[in-house]
């Protein structure tokens, strides 16, 4: 990768941040914009979870990570504390990988 492309990426990121600061407050107060702004982080997190769980080097894989995700979903459904969710999911995945 050349330094020119890095400089272009830095300039684009800076311009995007600057544009975000220049958006008028009345536009951000619109209810539709507010609903989208609250939904975007959840959608991005869901997409990241799906990519990290079901893919490996641009291939679809079905392995122990799915069981970990299922345990995490169950723990969340049971309203377990966040630390319990993470440890139970990681433990399930590790145990299945160790056994297999």
Walk me through what this model shows.
It is a single chain. Helix 4 (64-77) runs antiparallel to helix 5. This protein has helices spanning 3-22, 25-28, 31-54, 64-77, 82-99; strands at residues 55-56, 59-60. The longest helix is centred in the middle third of the chain and has 24 residues, at 31-54. It is built from five helices and two strands. A two-stranded antiparallel sheet has the order 1-2.
Itemize the secondary structure elements and their pairings.
Layout: H1 3-22, H2 25-28, H3 31-54, E1 55-56, E2 59-60, H4 64-77, H5 82-99
Antiparallel strand pairs: 1-2
Helix pairs in contact: 4-5
Record keyword descriptors for this entry.
single chain, 100 residues, mainly alpha, two-stranded antiparallel ribbon, 2 strands, flat
Structure summarized in a few sentences:
The chain has 100 residues and is mainly alpha-helical.
Low-confidence stretches: none
**Which range best describes the helical content: under 10%, 10-25%, 25-40%, 40-55%, 55-70% or over 70%?**
over 70%
Helix tally? 5
* Terminal-residue CA separation: 39 Å
Average predicted confidence as pLDDT: 93
* Class derived from helix and strand content: mainly alpha
**What order do the strands of the largest sheet run in, or round the barrel if closed?**
1-2
């Amino acid at each position: 990768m050349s330094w020119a492309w890095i400089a272009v990426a830095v300039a684009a990121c800076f311009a995007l941040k600057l544009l975000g600061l220049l958006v008028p407050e009345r536009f951000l107060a619109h209810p539709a914009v507010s609903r989208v702004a609250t939904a975007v982080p959840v959608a991005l997190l869901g997409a990241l979870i799906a990519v990290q769980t079901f893919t490996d080097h641009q291939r679809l894989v079905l392995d122990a990570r799915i069981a970990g995700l299922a345990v995490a979903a169950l723990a969340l459904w049971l309203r377990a504390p966040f630390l319990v969710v993470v440890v139970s999911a990681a433990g399930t995945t590790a145990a299945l990988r160790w056994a297999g």
